[in-house]
Amino acid sequence: MAAAMARAMSTAASGTPAVSLDTINPQILKCEYAVRGEIVTHAQNLQQELQKSPDALPFDEILYCNIGNPQSLGQQPVTYFREVLSLCDHPALLDKSETHALFSSDAIERAWQILEKIPGRATGAYSHSQGIKGLRDEIAAGIAARDGFHASGDNIFLTDGASPAVHMMLQLLISSEKDGILCPIPQYPLYSASIALRGGSLVPYFLDEETGWGLEVDELKKQLEEARSRGITVRALVVINPGNPTGQVLGEENQKKIVEFCKNEGLVLLADEVYQANIYVEDKQFHSFKKIARSLGYTDDDLPLVSFQSVSKGYYGECGKRGGYMEITGFSPEVREQIYKVASVNLCSNVSGQILASLVMNPPKAGDESFESFMVERDGILSSLARRAKALEEAFNSLEGITCNKAEGAMYLFPRLHLPQKAIGAAQAAGTAPDAYYAKRLLEATGIVVVPGSGFGQVPGTWHFRCTILPPEDKIPAIISRFKEFHEKFMDEFRD
């Protein structure tokens, strides 16, 4: 005690800051999150400049194509979901006669049903740490209807979006730098950041760009063996399907091989399935990994599997409501108890997000008053996203020095930049990665914000950027026009 006080007095006397980069947790210094990184910070500064002086820059607005945040770019919330949520958050409306003129009858009925499941009908109260039992049961029923296999509300943990669920599972699995997690490259930087914060090792496996970002089991085996040869205990495999940032949708046979691989190698399968509603090609459909595992005859005793879902993506795009869940199967009661303990530290996820998660997994059905209008809204959003993805993909592929795979699903394109050597040299002289250099120049010339591929990982010597397909459809032609003009000038400037 005396020694600690002496150190504190010495620090104060010397004028050394109590907190500095030398004294904070070194894992935080290793953590990076490019989706809201340096390029976005620069964009926000430019936006402030525009607000002060609208004519100061060669564009009149910042177009944020860096993050899957649909409503920030004009997507409207789904009416039925918001009606139910409004009524649950303000139950007094249910007793007013005029409510029936303003809200659909099935939204009113659903709000009553949900409130009956919430103790005291209090959406402003803490809930069970795992989430409200009745809502978990509804989500399980939605999963069972989707997959054709039993699901239990006891296996559902409701979380503030999918991200806290990912953090929770990686915290459970990583105890030192010798614990490794197999992650796709390119990957969503939530995984690399979370692994770094917990002091683990990211074990990369490369998706095959030449085959439309294919996930090859031979590549998984190769990287697993290489990691084990370095003394790393690989604990889990992360699969993002549909892919982020790559937009591919896995085929059923491919998924079966992945499940068999995890089973044979004793790995936990972490299935990021938050884009399951975002499919844009007719020859592909979403199959959950739990459905694949059960169709192969695997039970809870055979394979530890965690499936992540969120209300932030899909056609619903309710990012700010922070709703999501993980379904945990194949873990012993003793381990599940520890997961529950970690969930309890956060008390509970927000109740509005819990309600939305139950609605997303149980939307209106045929015969309900809201069904037809709901389908019009849902299909309108998804078909528009598909058109936007195709328009951007074709535009990128029409340009010299860019190749772009089709977005089969999710909300992104991940074009490859074939940059002239002079551009790479200019980036090196500026002390930055070539794709980051390109993204910054793009922003400063057009106001378009994309994320450099180096923030997601990529095959060494290749350069990419991630672009969302979320800007309003009527703005896509202008974005394409601005982008083409910039790119052609950039290539001319640095032509070898």
TrEMBL record:
The name this protein goes by in its record: Alanine aminotransferase 2
Alphabetized GO MF terms: L-alanine:2-oxoglutarate aminotransferase activity
Superkingdom in the source lineage: Eukaryota
UniProt keyword annotation of Transferase present: yes
Pathway: Photosynthesis; C4 acid pathway; Amino-acid degradation; L-alanine degradation via transaminase pathway; pyruvate from L-alanine: step 1/1
Residues covered by the Aminotransferase class I/classII large domain: 120-474
The protein's required cofactors: pyridoxal 5'-phosphate
Described function: Transfer of C3 units between the cytosol of mesophyll and bundle sheath cells to maintain a nitrogen-carbon balance in the C4-dicarboxylic pathway.
Reaction catalysis annotation: L-alanine + 2-oxoglutarate = pyruvate + L-glutamate
Keywords annotated in UniProt: Aminotransferase, Pyridoxal phosphate, Transferase
PANTHER family to which the protein is assigned, alphabetical: ALANINE AMINOTRANSFERASE, ALANINE TRANSAMINASE
Gene3D superfamilies given in the database record: 1.10.287.1970, Aspartate Aminotransferase, domain 1 (3.90.1150.10), Type I PLP-dependent aspartate aminotransferase-like (Major domain) (3.40.640.10)
Coiled coil residues, start to end: none
CDD domains found in the cross-reference section: AAT_like
Membership in a protein family: Belongs to the class-I pyridoxal-phosphate-dependent aminotransferase family. Alanine aminotransferase subfamily.
Record flagged with keyword Ribosomal protein: no
Signal peptide range in chain numbering: none
InterPro entries: ALAT1/2-like, Aminotransferase_I/II_large, PyrdxlP-dep_Trfase, PyrdxlP-dep_Trfase_major, PyrdxlP-dep_Trfase_small
EC number: 2.6.1.2
